Here is the input.
Amino acid sequence: MKDKSLVSITDFSKEEILRIVELAAEFEANPNQKLLDGKVVSSLFFEPSTRTRLSFETAINRLGGGIIGFTDSSSSSTSKGESLNDTIKMVSNYSDLIVMRHPLEGSARYASEVSDVPVINAGDGANQHPTQTLLDMYSIYKTQGTLDNLNIFLVGDLKYGRTVHSLMMAMSQFNPTFNFISPDSLKMPDEYKLFLDKQGIKYYEHHEFTDIIEEADILYMTRVQRERFSDPIEYEKVKNVYVLRNAMLDNTKDNLRILHPLPRVNEIHTDVDANPKAYYFEQAENGVYARMAIMASILGVK
Amino acid sequence: MTKKELSVRAIKNGTVIDHIPATHLFKVISILGLDKSKNQITFGTNLKSKQQGHKAIIKVAKKFFADDEINKIALVAPSAKLNIIEDYQVVDKKTVTIPEQIVGIAKCFNPKCITNNEEMVTKFSLVEPEPLALKCQYCEKITNEEHLEVL
Ligand SMILES: [Zn+2]
Here is the structure.
């Protein structure tokens, strides 16, 4: 994994994913390890994303590394019309690793080609966000004790939600069963179902968010966003259908945990927050350990 | 003498690329780098063709293309036919197939793709030749026949 860029979750093999997950657990047990002492990490946020940036910067600080960079493109040379190529070439001379968030799709792949140092994609438009996937997988591993043979329910926007697509692709290596719950207009695209068919993975599609969740080990909730609907009436119809309430959890399995990439809108009622099965706030914290594991692996210090 | 030879002079040794869509002649010339070649090149365009309305033809003297070189034109001239000429005789015939990797020829349909916002070379992998589907190696979106634009 040393010197390897992480642009798309498919860049990492099953073994590499497991290695990250195990390493994340090690960092959680012992978070202050100055393994990046003397190293400089560039944190290039061409669009603001406070949540992701703070998670990365906390991880870098805990590892004792230095940080250079910018928090949105208005304070960078891009605002003066510099090409991505030139920015990356300059920054790769100053640092050992680049963490990059950019609104354009494919920008991270391109940066990894022109950079002399590895690039971690912290989100490239609607395309990929692999560190989110790895923190999701760490959360699953931590709460279930394994990644194998789990029954995973994905709920909400399964059409446009890049986090559910990446998670589904990565989890497919661990013999899961998937249940997809979404309105018809936001159902899992055929290309992904075709992929699951080819892998021989079982999946079931549902429109109704009911007691079928009693079989779930993981309930992964996503936002249903207004802007995804061309017809506002259709949005009004579905926006309150895919909402998780505490009462729905009564007969669910003890090991069930509820995940959400955050921020939420209304898809998880606040009455769920106090339920021990609610895991979304811990999930966000796991992001720091997962990102420590990713950076330490890529820099070859762990 | 055939009509073809009347339109464009015959060559002794080299390659004849026939059945190029007339609209894509100059793209084929540029993809193959013939505009920078020192070889003797003759071409004709807007020639009548039974199969495709108006076609173009290129004759390149003393040039024999490697398969991966000539296959680059398959996106713009899928029906192109090659005649390999030695001593005025056709000694071999070839067709073109779309390569697995397409570099610098097609445009990604996704306006939010980095390739449409930065001066750089596009790269696609071939997902399906018929109907055509190309996967952008940057934004990972599929460009299909309907949205295909040649650079
Ligand atoms: Zn693209």
Q: What stands out?
A: Residues A 106; B 108, 110, 113, 115, 136, 138-139, 141 surround zinc ion (CB under 6 Å). Chain A touches chain B through 17 residues (CB under 8 Å).
